[in-house]
Design brief:
This protein is an alpha/beta fold. It contains 10 helices and 8 strands.
Length: 261
Amino acid sequence: MPIQSKQLSASLPRSLRSRRSDLVEWMDRPDCDPVMLHNTYRYFPVINRLISRWRGVYHRFIRPLLEPGITFRLLDVGSGGGDITKNIYKWAKQDGFLLDVTGIDPDPRALEYAMAHQKKAGAVTDTDNPAAAGLRFFQTDTATLRKKGHTFSFVICNHVLHHLPESEISGFLDDLAALATDRVICSDIERSTVGYALFSIATWPLFPNSYIRADGLISIRKSFRPGELNHILPADWRVVRQFPYRLLAVLDHSADAEHPT
């Protein structure tokens, strides 16, 4: 059954001092409304372009490590609707680099949407061989890829860390580190009262019949502050703050890699 709009309304919490890791986003519920879920995936490109700002991340943290004539591989973990996965593939191709890009997500609903809407970008389905060239999506998780011995030049994720129970974060980061040969980049929200208020106001009249506003506000309440994220990261990782209210958790495997801040 569709969720009534009053159920999705959100007022400013009394305090964002502590993370609310117990909250669950509406779109992660198995019984969420399929129309609203579809619309949420449809609006993700706008949200990610304005807030997640992956083009800047690509230029600062991925492009400088690419070399002409050499094929690099990138894994996008929790790729959702696939817009970030597709864009990184497109940007690298436009810049003249060879970058094989794989998007994975454990949710079959996300995979179905990504495959249905990214074919124009050259996506192919290959559930058995994640080393296939080009851009593709398939349903799996990091633990499975690690057990099979797959590795990628870059491993990225967007808005995944705050979704995980705290008991699973360490193992997840360990998987990402094992899968990457060059660099891991985890992009997420920086929890902020100001950011919460701005997002609430800015999205109030927009993104109708979707979970964008409700889940965005829940995600902010579940997300980290810089010190909190730094505390849970292994020693070799670092936290990079970005505008607006963004945090990157970065791991460099190469001692020669430049460290943009």
